[in-house]
């Protein structure tokens, strides 16, 4: 009985640690637009499909890293966009719908629009505060690759520094903040939601 109790306590402790990790707070595109009206931030869209193995791998590895989640939740409105979703998206006076392709792969018009006609999964789409697409980047990204990309756009380095220079000189967060525990464990700030722009 005592052994069963200790196993139970260990299970609860482990589950608490997993739940205590700071996950990415994903929004729908419509929610991100509403949040933009309150506090302008960039938007990053993870364009995925349910059948995409690389998308699932990126969810389980890259987006599970605490420093990635913290940064995304603080600097961006992260959006998950199923490229095969059926729900209509209304944006900028335009209606985007699901397109049934019969024997071919069906897709959502909004996914096609934000990837500029290059449907590939996963694809990351970075959008600025004025709702202009900065860049769409197809393919799986490791945590380190994604960290470099998200900070490049998140800190507006893309406006002044060529990607090749930024990438070559980039110092990973784990090295920048290794001597400062307060910065390593920066809490996620909850997103505000109030209404109109």
Q: How much helical structure, as a percent, in the residues?
A: 40-55%
CATH A-level architecture: 3-Layer(aba) Sandwich
DSSP summary: helix tally: 9
Low-pLDDT runs: 4-20, 183-197
One letter per element, helices H and strands E, the order comes to HHEHHEEEEEHEEHHHH
What oligomeric state do these chains adopt? Answer: single chain
Largest sheet: 4 strands, mixed
Strand percent estimate = 15-25%
Structural class determined from secondary elements: alpha+beta
Number of domains: 1
Radius of gyration: 19 Å
CATH C-level class is Alpha Beta
Can you identify the CATH superfamily?
Glutaredoxin
Query: How are the strands ordered across the major sheet?
Result: 2-1-7-8
Number of strands: 8
What distance lies between the first and last C-alpha atoms, to the nearest angstrom? Answer: 59 Å
Q: Average pLDDT across residues?
A: 83
Shape: globular
CATH fold label: Glutaredoxin
Report on this structure.
The chain is α+β, with helices and mostly antiparallel strands and 197 residues long. It has a single domain, classed as Glutaredoxin (3-Layer(aba) Sandwich), CATH 3.40.30. It has 9 helices and 8 strands. It has helices at 2-20, 29-38, 53-60, 66-75, 109-114, 143-154, 163-169, 173-176, 181-184, and strands at residues 42-48, 76-82, 89-91, 94-96, 98-99, 107-108, 123-127, 133-138. Strands 2-1-7-8 form a 4-stranded mixed sheet. A two-stranded antiparallel ribbon has the order 3-4. The protein has a two-stranded antiparallel sheet with strand order 5-6. It is globular. The termini are far apart. The model is unreliable at 4-20 and 183-197 (pLDDT under 50).
């Amino acid at each position: 009985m005592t052994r069963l109790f200790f196993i139970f306590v260990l299970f609860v402790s482990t589950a608490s640690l997993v739940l205590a990790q700071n996950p990415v707070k994903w929004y729908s595109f419509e929610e991100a637009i509403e949040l933009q009206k309150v506090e302008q931030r960039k938007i990053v869209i993870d364009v995925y499909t349910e059948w995409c193995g690389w998308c699932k791998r990126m969810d389980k590895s890259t987006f599970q890293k605490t420093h990635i989640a913290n940064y995304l939740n603080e600097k961006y409105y992260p959006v998950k966009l199923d490229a095969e979703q059926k729900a209509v998206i209304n944006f900028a006076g335009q209606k985007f719908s699901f397109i049934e392709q019969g024997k071919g792969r069906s897709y959502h018009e909004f996914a096609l629009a934000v990837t500029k006609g290059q449907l590939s999964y996963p694809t990351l789409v970075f959008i600025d505060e004025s709702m202009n697409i900065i860049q769409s980047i197809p393919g799986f990204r490791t945590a380190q690759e994604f960290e470099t990309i998200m900070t490049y756009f998140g800190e507006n380095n893309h406006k002044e520094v060529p990607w090749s220079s930024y990438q070559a000189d980039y110092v990973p967060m784990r090295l920048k903040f290794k001597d400062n525990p307060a910065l390593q464990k920066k809490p996620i700030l909850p997103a505000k939601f109030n209404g109109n722009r």
